[in-house]
Amino acid sequence: MNLPKQPVQQKVLKYAITSLIVAGSIWSASGLEITLEKILKAPEQIAILVGAMFPLDLSQEAIERILPKVAESLFIAWAGTVIGAIFSFPIAFLAANNVAVNYVSEATKQILNGIRAFPELILAFVFLPITGLGALTGTLAIGIHSIGTLGKLSSEVIEGIDEGPLEAIKSSGGSKINELLFGVVPQVMPTITSYWLYRFEINLRASAVLGVVGAGGVGAELINQLRFRDFPRAGTVLVATVVLVLTVDTISAAIRRRIIKGRSIKIDQ
Amino acid sequence: MINLPKKPPPSLMVFLGIPAAFLFSYFCFSKVGFNLSDFRENLQNRYIVTDPLFNPKWSWAIENASEAIIETIQIAILASIVGCFIALPLSFYASQTTNQNKISFFLYKSFLNLVRTIPDLFWAMMFTVAVGLGPFAGVLALVMFSLAIMGKLLSETIDSIDPGPLEAAKSSGASHNQSVFTSALPQVLPNFTAYFLYIFELCIRASVILGLVGAGGVGRIIETQRIFLRFDRISPIIVLILVVVILIEQFSVWLRRRIL
Questions:
Q1: Mean pLDDT, all residues of chain A
Q2: Residues 76 to 105 of A: which have CB under 8 A from any B CB?
């Protein structure tokens, strides 16, 4: 059979990438002093830890301690998302290049990029000496990081709108404010709302972690129980977190789907 | 008179959902102790942080943190490679297009979901307890992290591939594994590479904070300086990390454009 040959350039690229991956992993493994012995011992060690967690500590005292912390993570995530949503919404209009003037949108985009570059945890420990240990610090850290991410996503949604309705409003004498209010907002609202919910799901995971630096939530509980070698209780914390995240994910995904799809409307003749 | 269609009444979900969201927000803000007057008062302490933060000690950071930053990059490289290559076969089992067995499909899918639910730093904490402090625990944590993301992204991509080639391979006598290997894998390989680069970027960002729980990398240095409120030493480290992250992102964007 006379099959066409594979292009040479593609082949070279393939080998280059393979060797890059191999070289990268060898360099990293040797730099981190990861030996075969360590890798072979790891599964057993992990099994011992998991074995120590079960049966879970479901005593009254443990549950009374852990549940408020898990709930606090939920509150932090929601409050942080609300802060992010409120502030990112107007900023998104400034960052969208089809609504704002060109240089304003460029500058706003750079500011959003700057905010997004800092992980929540770093923001949290910068706020820690100012607002103190506790949930407020976590909320602020998550809120500010969310402004960055939501601002970027929302501005991209605004940039992708259909310009037709804007023109229609302009041609029937509407002002710039009318255009934004009746032309842009109804078009972007479903997608932006679903992004808010999506961000809430991500923030829930982030807020669970924030406790590590003392910014409130369930993370502090987990790290303390692990430090004191109270593995059954650490297991309870972990399971409670997993249940919360799975529940929130499921509910939020259902609401998002409903928002994007809309309601089926019966039309009576 | 134009006969406009009647505007549908707001659905029950909107009717109840929006007030409920407002109430819940109010409840959350009161629970986390959000209070504007306290906040303004607290803001007067900001000089504890902002003064040192904007007086970075560059020489100290470069001298003490550059080794740890390299360690961070190594953790991210190794973990993203291992995690993604473990996820590659798993995602074929976690997609209904390539796994007709309902039970094993369900098991693989729920395994990936479970791994994804646990935050990266929780993995790191558990692995530091299990295998000891140090970068090995960090690598394991990020392996789980990248495994979960790649599993989700890739299995969803496999769900949406063109089933034609699979059928063609089967009808010419290939076994199930052969048909998956020759017809499904080549279809998703470009996506796999793109996702891999994306996950590598995420791992670089995530590996910075691993050190806060003792799982290696530059976070270890940040944590010790943070406890002593030496923000003058932390801020240059953060800037250095940002530079590294941006450089790696640029490289990966360039590479992605070459491949796709």
A1: 86
A2: 76, 78-79, 82
Q: Which residues of A touch B185 (CB under 8 A)?
A: none
State residue B65's pLDDT score: 82
Whether the CB-CB separation of B240 and B69 falls below 8 Å is answered with: yes
Contact A139 B118 (CB under 8 A): no
CB contact under 8 A, A42 and B193: no
**ipTM of the predicted structure?**
0.82
* pLDDT at site B163: 85
- Given a cut of 70, whether residue A269 has pLDDT beyond it is no
Domains belonging to chain A, first-starting first, are 55-261 (1.10.3720.10)
Residue of A118, A131, A246 lying closest to B42 (CB–CB): A131
Q: B98-112 pLDDT, tens per residue?
A: 888 889 999 999 999
Whether B34 shows a pLDDT value over 60: the answer reads yes
The Cα B191–Cα B177 span in angstroms is 20
Give the domain B57-259 fold: MetI-like fold (1.10.3720)
Q: How far apart are CA B64 and CA B74, in angstroms?
A: 17
- Tell me how far CA of residue B173 lies from CA of B101, B150, B163, B164, in angstroms: 20, 31, 16, 15
Q: Per the structure block, which two tokens stand in for A192? A: 């932006």
Chain B residues near residue A135 by CB distance under 8 angstroms:
31-33
CA atoms within 13 A on the CB side of B216: 31
Domain ranges of chain B: 57-259
Percent of chain B, pLDDT > 70? 99
- Considering chain B, what is the average pLDDT of its residues? 85
Would you tell me how many other CB atoms lie within 10 Å of the CB of residue A251?
12
Q: What is the mean pLDDT of residues B163-187?
A: 87
Q: Which residues are CB-contacts of A49 (< 8 A; sequence separation ≥ 6)? A: A231, B126, B129, B130
Could you tell me if B7 lies within 8 Å of chain A, comparing CB atoms?
no
